[in-house]
Amino acid sequence: MSHAIQPLIGITCGLIHNTDGVPVFQLAQAYTRAVQKAGGLPLVIPLDMDETGVSSLLTRLDGIILSGGGDIDPHYFNGISHPNVYGISPERDALEISLVNQVLGMDKPLLAICRGIQVLNVALGGDLYTHIQDQVEHSLKHDWFPKFPRDKLAHTVSIKCESKLDQIVNADEIKVNSLHHQGISRVGEGLIPTAFAPDGLVEGLEVAGASFAIGVQWHPECLPDDPRSQSLFKAFIEACL
């Protein structure tokens, strides 16, 4: 792919407080590296933008990535409370759910990763397991963090034949990393499940009728040497041209 034209890609981020108590926007470098490697220009979307600002920014962006991070507030999906729920950010929840609805309304390319696929599902009326291990019978271990390498290939996912994801990775099954303790339960309206873990958990979604709106539960940005994971970023960037 020629890099003469580089689409501008907005990436959502998290919010932390550093050791001095100063609020800091946070995004793993792997996201920006993956976007640049695929031929895009990354731009971090700050969480303190109002809806008007987000709308204005979206007119300038060619595509959007919903990045991974902490949990979504269970009140957005009538979730069962659990002591392992962590990292809730009201600012991030509000911005990303609004972002999903605006992006899909504009039919801009959207790639939703880990927390991102969960935001996509919740924004379209779906539900989540707040802690897979306690709510899915015979579930695999999905929370291979924080004491494990982020590129650890934890399990396989089977990919639905003739889905967009299938066309992109060109495989019925791939090995993926797994860094989540929550997951998709009831699928949101207009979403098509496209990838499944061996325990049946939905690990891939696409939006019916969208030009490119795909969510994956794993972290392809942390697998820079895996051609199938990188093909997802390449296909996303090509859709943004």
Distance between the termini: 11 Å
Total number of beta strands = 13
- The third-level CATH topology is Rossmann fold
Computed Rg: 17 Å
Level-1 CATH class name? Alpha Beta
Strand order of the largest sheet: 4-1-5-6-13-12-11-8-9
| Spans of at least 5 consecutive residues with low confidence | none
**Beta-strand content:** 15-25%
Mean of residue pLDDT values = 96
CATH architecture grouping: 3-Layer(aba) Sandwich
Q: Tell me the domain tally.
A: 1
Which term fits the overall shape? Answer: globular
Give me the number of helical elements. Answer: 7
Give a quick account of the main beta sheet: strands, pairing sense, barrel closure.
9 strands, mixed
Supply the helix-strand structural class: alpha/beta
Order of helices and strands: EEEHEHEHEHEHEHEEEEEH
Question: What share of the residues lie within helices?
Answer: 25-40%
Explain what this protein looks like in three dimensions.
It is a single chain. With 241 residues, the chain is an alpha/beta fold. The protein has one domain: Rossmann fold. Helices cover 29% and strands 23% of the residues. The protein has seven helices and 13 strands. The strands form three sheets. The chain has a nine-stranded mixed β-sheet with strand order 4-1-5-6-13-12-11-8-9, with helices on both faces. A hairpin with a 5-residue loop joins strand 12 (202-207) and strand 13. Helix 2 (51-60) crosses helix 3 (90-106) and helix 3 crosses helix 4 (115-123). The protein is globular and about 45 Å long. The termini are close together. The model has no long low-confidence stretch (mean pLDDT 96).
